[in-house]
Design brief:
Helix content: 25-40%
CATH topology of one domain: Rossmann fold
Largest sheet: 7 strands, parallel
Number of helices: 10
CATH superfamily of one domain: NAD(P)-binding Rossmann-like Domain
Distance between the termini: 38 Å
Bound molecules: nicotinamide-adenine-dinucleotide
Strand content: 15-25%
Number of strands: 13
Length: 327
Amino acid sequence: MERILRNSKVLVTGGAGFIGSNLIESLLDAGNQVVCLDNFSTGKRENLAGFVNNPRFTLIEGDIRNYEDCERAVSGADVVYHEAALGSVPRSIKDPVTSTDVNIGGFVKMLFASNEAGVKRFIYAASSSTYGDHPDLPKVEEVIGSPLSPYAITKYVDELFASNFNKTYGIDTVGLRYFNVFGRRQAPDGAYAAVIPKFVKMLMKHEVPVINGDGSVSRDFTYIDNVVQANHLAAVATNPNALNQVYNVAHGERTTLNQLYSTIRELAGGYDREILTIEPVYGPTRGGDIAHSLASIKKASDLLGYSPVLNVAQGLEESVKWFWNNL
Ligand SMILES: NC(=O)c1ccc[n+]([C@@H]2O[C@H](COP(=O)([O-])OP(=O)(O)OC[C@H]3O[C@@H](n4cnc5c(N)ncnc54)[C@H](O)[C@@H]3O)[C@@H](O)[C@H]2O)c1
């Protein structure tokens, strides 16, 4: 079976962002025509630089909160990969109104426009934050707790809408609960930057990173190529039981923040030995976060044929190399 969609017309929302731009790159490589809808709120033009001149690529600068933009972008698309959202738990705690507007309001507009346009499959970025306060590890898709942040609520509500739209209107959907994704083109700057690019950039500048809490918090850090693979598999899945489901997308490996810091420091130290002497400082614990996260990837493996390409150590090596050469 093909493991990637070819020669189709697709829409990637949020394509100027970290995950969306990596997805677009591989969809273009596979011969697809790709439309990107993005409002550049957190995405960057430089993320599109590698393919903006590709004749099979079209950029629509617009907002998923604007239904007309959704309609225009989705026209003629076979598959939609919906990545556009406002990420970050702290951002959603600071401004729940905008996060809700984009992540739920924009989601429903994009989903409804996709259904109206006859899109065959709507694949969307869900989140591991949906597991909320449930203590069990590893996380299995059917067992979730109460959400711990507005962001987590928005991502769970999206799953409910996707399931309801399938029952009500018939559009097929696949939700991918990403677990702490990292890799090339992830934004290192700003108040809501993810920990890996932030640490790498700070170490490159010989600045001292702050670890929230005592560093024992653990996550299932997932390299970008694994996430791209899961999206491709979701697009080509032919087993009807695989559709209208949500899946964990992770590596299935738990790393504490302290372990993460040591590995990044060692890798960056390979480029600049002075970095090896930089000790982190410890700050207050962050609100809205779970203490530990680890995914079972059995469902994605059984129903989609998902099998992660790189583990955390290999992904970190690739990422530090990329940041070293590109920041
Ligand atoms: N990165 C992770 O670890 C992670 C984990 C779980 C879920 N997710 C989800 O994956 C998706 C992609 O995340 P990312 O890390 O690439 O984030 P990102 O911020 O790099 O990308 C999001 C993109 O969406 C665009 N966007 C935001 N609001 C928009 C709007 N109203 N209209 C049009 N475009 C808009 C942004 O400009 C940006 O290009 C998001 O839905 C996010 O919630 C990410």
